[in-house]
Amino acid sequence: MQRATTKKDAWTAKRCYPVSMADFPDEMQEGRFERQEDAFRGWVGRDGGPPVEAGRYHLYISLACPWAHRTLIVRSLLGLQEMIGVSVADPMRDERGWAFREGNGHHPDEAEGFEFLSEAYHASDPDFHGRYTVPVLWDKKVRRIVNNSEDDICRMFQECFAGAEARDLFPLHLAEEQAALSDYLYEKVNNGVYRAGFATDQAAYEKAVRDLFLALDEMAVRLERSTFLLGEHMVESDLRLFCTLIRFDSVYHGHFKCNLRRIIDWPPLLRFMRDIYLQPGIAATVSFDHIKRHYYGTHRDLNPSGIVPLGPSAVFEKAGSTG
């Protein structure tokens, strides 16, 4: 989840600048990175929210962002491509936030003609302050954000938009165990890599890395016993882990200094990552080009030159498009 910093920057900046840790002042606490809360938590089809209507809602994402990536995968797995449109942002984010322009694997916004995602945020709340994050679920009828929480959006896709014949990524009999696992993955793995990479204090960095690798060890033990984290059927928690693992060797290992071990050196995690990648519809959502260009090209405090490394060699063959 990546956002620009201030409303003024979003509307008045005319030049492109790299993003630095100074762009996250409200999320740095004594050398630790503490992610901001999601601001929009509306729900389609219940609690007074707007009704489910095909073509009414639009998903704004970046292929580089692991949080947004998960919503794109769920949209694909549940067969919602015709019901919910998608706009893919340029992976090169500056202080104005995510932009929509023509390029390799990204394109102008066809839903509203937004140049920057910040326009959606300020159309929804003119007083919004904070980073402008992906994903965003947008209501085209009333022209406002419904939700910008990837957790909510994935569950909404399942509960409100998917048909009865769609696969169940949130099985009721696993609800309690899955919720606990998902919370653990968020804290130690998904956000753990960011806490390591964005730390400005040695102790904070070391704690984040140790917690991360202990959690990955635990996941590897689980995956020695079963195909997926909770058994033989893939659930949404598996996608949470996958979206971090697929970026790990290319970005988090070096760029975020999570370098105690690589995923390719961890047989259970590598097998799991490959198994999910080869599920129908998932490979097409993965863009190593966007992933590497975004992280190495925008985090200039971590990579001042902006040079994007050629390696590591791809474990997978790229296939398909975002659709």
UniProtKB/TrEMBL annotation:
Residues 64-159 form the GST N-terminal domain. It holds the Pfam family GST_C_2. CDD domains: GST_C_Omega_like. Transmembrane segments: none annotated. This is Glutathione S-transferase family protein. It comes from Luteolibacter flavescens.
